[in-house]
Amino acid sequence: MERREATGPAQHEVFRLGYVPGATPAKWARVFRSRHRDVTLELVPLAASEAERAVTDGLVDAAILRPPVDREVLHAIPLYAEEPVVVVSRDHLLAALDESEAVAPADLADDVLLQPADDVLHWAGAPGAEDGAISPPGTPSLEVPQTTADAFELVAAGVGVLVVPRSLARLHHRKDVTARTLTDGPTAPVVLAWSIERENERTEDLIGIVRGRTVNSSRGRPAQAQAAPKEASGAPRTKPAPARGARKPTRKPRRRR
Length: 257
Known about the structure:
22% strand, D-Maltodextrin-Binding Protein, domain 2, five-stranded mixed β-sheet, alpha/beta, 2 domains
């Protein structure tokens, strides 16, 4: 991936926001574009395995990705955490469950669990796993799919089951597989990451947007709005004009001596 610069007679500033499969940057992109019409925002799709390096190498200015990230070179703030689902073939016993019914890890004890090379869940022993993370249920597959898309192919063929964040189940949805919520499984956190060395004003603007700052907040509004003149502290104060139709106060008659 090569970094491209804006060209042409009217060269706009370009801000590149990367995102991994399943991430949804659209709502934040809309707000950013509405506040910075003089900046070209490019949304750059990234493979999960390439996202961190894309930020580190400056191919994107920031990225919505899944941890872990190297905190020595990148800043990261949490955005949200996705719940896991188990994906099974239409012929699987769990497919007979109602879509509102959840599955526990113990229900997968007799299944072959597919874990692709680009797995984003933090099972016990995986990089970024928290203390107390659960171990993968079932029997590990002898075959390691290279991608999540490859794993869906194997699920459809009845080779095994797959646990992924719900967004990836939607992204790779197909008619011959189905998904059910997995309780007590590892969640999939999503963060906004950017380079410590290349933090800039636009990055700060994006941070404010994802944190919900309004355009009128001190760190979330355009510079021209922040520079709006305030009333001078030494300006003379004038009394408000009386309302139309209001009675004028009558003078107290003087006493005759």
